[in-house]
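User: My instructor asked us to take a sequence, write out its structure as tokens, and then describe one feature of it. I'm not sure where to start. Here is the sequence I was given:
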Amino acid sequence: MATFATPDTILHWYRDLVAKKYYGSKSRGAGRPRKPAEIVSVLLRMAKDNPRWGYTRLRGALRNLGYEVGRNTIKRILKEQGLEPAPMRGKSDSWATFIKAHLGAIAGADFFTVEVLSLAGLIRFYVFFLIDIASRRIEIAGISPSPDGAWMAQIARNLLDAEEGFLVGKRYLILDRDPLYTGDFRRMLEAAGVKAVRLPPRSPDLNAFAERFVLSIKSECLLVRGICDERSASLSCTITRRGTIKGWGTRRSCQYSSRRIATVPSAGLSVSVVC
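Assistant: Let's start with the prediction itself. The structure tokens for your sequence are:
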């Protein structure tokens, strides 16, 4: 053996064999094991719902739930998720948080048309509706074959009624550039504390909830029912004294399926659209 290895080499081989026997890096993961996803989810929810809670306060809240997490671990998790420390997190709200906080004060409005088959041919009726952005509640404000400024003024008075008005408690109403939203109509809204937010031209995506309702009621209700007279237009567009929009949001498996949809009596009528 002395002809091909020195004593130092043999000792080096011996030490390598001993080291390999007790070397356990292959059976270990990289670094400290990560916290379970459940703890991370609870922590992130606490941090977002309570933006002024610091690391120590969050640690105490987690301990109350039976989770033992260190301050540095909380700091690392929040940093990985892009959440600032408590002072900054409490002063800068995200757009999602800002919009969610103000949804209850916003409503949208729009028109859609219904073609009614009569003895004189097809007659176009205009349906004016509003939608509560927070609850997706729909109000059919009026239906007319020839809406004008006086008709819109009466609609505004109905919507602003102190007891049953749909816009009671609302601060903003999203409108497009339709000329039927006359100056008098907008001034009546603003006199009652409701600001008319007029969208840029050709931007229906900025009133997306109203546009989605128009698509739903036309494709799933109006276009699959024959509308043969003014009475049926007034509700299938069925005239009832009191009613509910029953088709949208209750019989569709869509993102609004859990929303409660209802109407409030409009200009002389209450509408029930049954799909």
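For the description part of your assignment, you could build on this observation: Confidence is low (pLDDT under 50) at residues 235-275. Try explaining in your own words what that tells you about the chain.
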